[in-house]
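Hello support,

Our group uses your service weekly, and this is the first time we've seen a run hang past the timeout. The protein is 2-dehydro-3-deoxy-phosphogluconate aldolase. I'm not sure whether the cause is the sequence or the server load. Input pasted verbatim:
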Amino acid sequence: MIADELFDLAPVIPVVVLDDADAAVPLARALLDGGLPAIEVTLRTPAALEAIALIAAEVPDAVVGAGTVVRPEDAERSAAAGARFLVSPGCTERLRAAMLATRLPFLPGTATASEVIALLEDGVTAMKFFPAGPAGGPAYLKALAGPLPRARFCPTGGVTPRNAAEYLALDNVGCVGGTWLTPADAVRAGDWDRIRALAAEAAALRPA
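Update from on-call engineer: The timeout came from a worker crash unrelated to the input. Re-ran successfully.
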């Protein structure tokens, strides 16, 4: 799989924060059953790498990735845990080299035209746009499409069920990332039916 193919898996990639690795497998199964095979587990908690490893081992139909990759060692450890793609909130030359070295698809974070151009110069065309809302939202991405048509994005940060379709209507948006699919209270309560329902609604999203 190449990075651009992540965009074809579903209109939404759930962005998941897990404090308890034991929730990883039932959570992944609920998202998958709802129609969202790609799952980004953020490296914001001590449980994240174990959660990735459990999903990779026990839910093979899920495409589990690691998010919040901010250090070269994050990329290496995520790959070793079984991640199938990597996502970073921003990108430096050193971090890009580390992600590239894993041979995994990756979505490096961008927020400015200069950052997009720098990645395009390195042959990277699939990117994360973060933080999407504060960085300019759909209007900003629409403006980028004219001068930089080769770049495609997964906007994350401020994306909600109310504005996701507006992002998805843009030619340079392949999918969006969102945290609303896995509410913390639902995860703590093990309310997998609720998460499955949210995933099904997101999987059915269409451009505005």
